[in-house]
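Quick one: co-fold with hypoxanthine.
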Amino acid sequence: MYAIIGGSGMAKLTALQNPRRQVMRTPYGEPSGAMTFGEFAGAEVVFLARHGYGHTLSPHEINYRANIWALKELKVEGVISVATVGGIRSDLEPGTLVVPDQIIDYTHSRKSTFFEGSEMPVIHVDFTQPYARALRERLIAAAAACNEKVFDGAVYACTQGPRLETAAEIERIAREGGDVVGMTGMPEAVLAREVGLDYAAVAVVINHAAGRGDSLQAIKLEELGEVMHHSVVRAVRILNSFFENAP
Ligand code: HPA
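Sure, here it is.
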């Protein structure tokens, strides 16, 4: 069973058949919401709304540890994240779907490890390749199988939020190699790695990042509902293809 963590624009997975909800508690507190189990394209999956079902949790308020711990307890095979981002690279325009292959973490003050406290050993996980290669490749193949174009590989820059970035910050992130910018990819990805869960993401570009394209003067995220909706529908098509073609 795979887990899907849905971000903005994906607080529910309406395609889920026979949905069953389960509230979970973890040593790290409560996940963003109840786990929803169901069948999706013939496969049993568990869905979690990253920001809560009513979209009430800001990126810095999400209990990433509880979310990942709960999924680990459910013994999922891997985690597929869907997350909206801003496009920095000029070819990553709104409406583009990306399967990132790298991360730069600009977040701070988030609980970003399970390995802390006097009873925990000192452990340094390898994070050279932050996304699971096989899972990324399967997502890319699933996109090809349903004729959805996705970009294979991009550097996901994770900012702290909840405010959007300044144009100068985006300029700096671009110089440092960031291709898309979001607020939730970390510590989610590293926590999955710490507990040994495969993790990959479909990043949905919904706006030009600050100072880029039509975001020269401002980003009006609240006006991006339509792009977000259409793009998330396409991301769900890819997931559908992923599970339809599951081995
Ligand atoms: N910046 C950070 N996070 C985002 C953006 C952005 O421009 N768009 C969607 N999530």
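If it helps, The helical segments are 64-73, 133-145, 167-175, 185-194, 225-244.
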